[in-house]
Amino acid sequence: MIDVAESAGFQNQGILDIPLKVGKKVLGYSIVGTDDQIPDYVNDAVFIVTIGHIKDASLRIKLHQKIIDAGGTLATIIASTSHVSKHALIEEGSVIMHRAVVNADASIGRGCIINTFANIEHDANIGDYCHISTGAMVNGNCKVGNETFLGSQSVMVNGIEITAGCVIGAGSLIRRNITQKGIYSGNPTTLKIILP
Ligand SMILES: CC(C)(COP(=O)(O)OP(=O)(O)OC[C@H]1O[C@@H](n2cnc3c(N)ncnc32)[C@H](O)[C@@H]1OP(=O)(O)O)[C@@H](O)C(=O)NCCC(=O)NCCS
Fold first, then answer.
1. Distance 154 CA to ligand 1 centre (A)
2. What is the 3-state secondary structure (H, E, C) of the chain?
3. Closest residue (by CA) to atom 34 of ligand 1?
4. Residues pairing with 34 in the sheet
């Protein structure tokens, strides 16, 4: 995330983390305080939440909300090496990582991670707080529900829909709509666990 933000022209003013880590450094940048100090920075900085998500987006959402409640602004970051169509929509707090592609008329909701080499094809729609992992292929007209995780190198066939809150394992091939919230994997993709 730091590397991608640098490539997009952001200047890192410091990192907030858990108390045990204050004073340490990440990629040469100091951990200057804890999340409780978010209000101290709202006037001088925009924020990036670097927590990822595989099985549960709740921590990422909680931190986004903490920043919003403090009056802060979430940065929307587009890596210099990615391609985002001028006809695509990227909402606040989302990060488009290196070499990802977001094609024409695609839309990406709030707080998403579109990871390295992921491909969001034309007219596809990614909900809020999704993580589309490295090299995943979301083909044209697909829809991914809020808070869904799509594993590395998964392929969604054109026009497929996945309901909110799902976890799709790495390397899955999704050829049928997924309407039940759960953990899925494999080729063809099958339900492993139903999620509440
Ligand atoms: C789907 C996933 C989250 C499941 O994790 P888990 O709940 O710990 O599941 P387990 O590893 O215990 O596996 C449960 C079963 O599902 C199968 N399975 C898990 N992931 C699978 C996958 N990606 N493809 C095919 N089968 C898979 C396992 O073989 C296992 O079956 P078994 O008990 O018969 O051996 C995890 O395997 C996965 O794919 N994570 C995504 C990794 C990724 O893409 N990271 C990118 C970050 S950018």
1. 12
2. CHHHHHHCCCCCCCEEECHHHCCCEECCEEEEEEHHHHHHHCCCCCECCCCCCCCCCHHHHHHHHHHHHCCCCECCEECCCCEECCCCEECCCCEECCCCEECCCCEECCCCEECCCCEECCCCEECCCCEECCCCEECCCCEECCCCEECCCCEECCCCEECCCCEECCCCEECCCECCCEEEECCCCEEEEECC
3. 192
4. 17
Ligand 1 in reach of 133 Cβ (< 6 A): yes
Task: Name the amino acid, one letter, at 90.
Answer: I
* pLDDT tens, position by position, 135-175: 999 999 999 999 999 999 999 999 999 999 999 999 999 99
How many angstroms does the Cα of residue 82 sit away from the middle of ligand 1?
Answer: 28
pTM over 0.90: yes
